[in-house]
Amino acid sequence: MSTNLFDLSGKTAIITGCNTGLGQGMAVGLAEAGCNIVAVNRSEPSETQRRVEASGQGFLAVHADLTSTAPIDDILYQTEQRFGGADILINNAGLIRRADALDFTEQDWDDVINVNLKSLFFLSQAFGRACVDKQRRGKIINIASLLSFQGGIRVPSYTASKSGVLGLTRLMANEWASLGLNVNAIAPGYMATNNTQALRDDPQRSREILGRIPTGRWGTPEDLVGAAVFLASRASDYVNGHTLAVDGGWLGR
Ligand code: NAP
């Protein structure tokens, strides 16, 4: 066994929504720690593939729209065929819809909940079953949000989904810790990706947000890598059901 607690050599991670943004940053970061990557996307993850392969690790792209749970069996099947299974699952795919709560539509509710919460749970369940069947240790990392802790405004389905992610992370940890599965979450702060483009394009909102972040800057995909490698590695074997904020200090204010 490597003496490096954070070494991921020989491991395989399934990461959803990693063609861009935070998912891409974590895929590249895990690959640099030695991990093969199964990239689950509805868009082509060509840039992620190039960057993962440049670090010398294996890469498999699986096409899936996680609005529905239908692709889940195929994700596990293709991972098994190519890498003999996975050790790590990062549930990162997510979307946000913004509208006043008085006007919010059922479509915007269902679309967000289906990807951010329902598929996250059923993919975790499929991954958990595969680990238990093979008596293999597993690490699940869910991507939560500051809106797992706070209410937010104009994003009702997003707040519901991310608050649900925090609760489900605890539930899965409670049931599965004794089976050799670590389930934890990362709550990113305000990060410069597509998800926050509308906020950064609004000078007043952008100023208000920046004014509250103690580090005084938006986060980047690279800022999540340390937390992701920690929660994916044996360094976190006794960490269960925790949601780790990586937020430049936002929640401390
Ligand atoms: P992003 O650039 O918009 O990335 C979101 C990813 O999810 C993309 O790869 C996207 O694929 C994928 N996705 C969305 N709907 C999908 C679907 N139906 N099926 C499969 N994949 C789907 O935003 P990001 O900031 O990197 O977001 C990553 C995660 O971090 C999300 O869960 C988000 O809620 C969370 N988060 C972000 C922030 C932030 O400040 N940026 C803060 C807290 C939490 P496409 O490119 O094909 O749409």
From TrEMBL:
Family per similarity comment: Belongs to the short-chain dehydrogenases/reductases (SDR) family.
Domain of life: Bacteria
Membrane-spanning parts: none
One Pfam family recorded for the sequence: adh_short_C2
Sorted UniProt keywords: Oxidoreductase
Molecular functions per Gene Ontology: 2-dehydro-3-deoxy-D-gluconate 5-dehydrogenase activity
Protein name per UniProt: 2-dehydro-3-deoxy-D-gluconate 5-dehydrogenase KduD
CDD domains documented for this protein: Ga5DH-like_SDR_c (cd05347)
PANTHER family membership: 2-DEHYDRO-3-DEOXY-D-GLUCONATE 5-DEHYDROGENASE (PTHR42760:SF5), SHORT-CHAIN DEHYDROGENASES/REDUCTASES FAMILY MEMBER (PTHR42760)
GN (gene name): kduD
Protein EC: 1.1.1.127
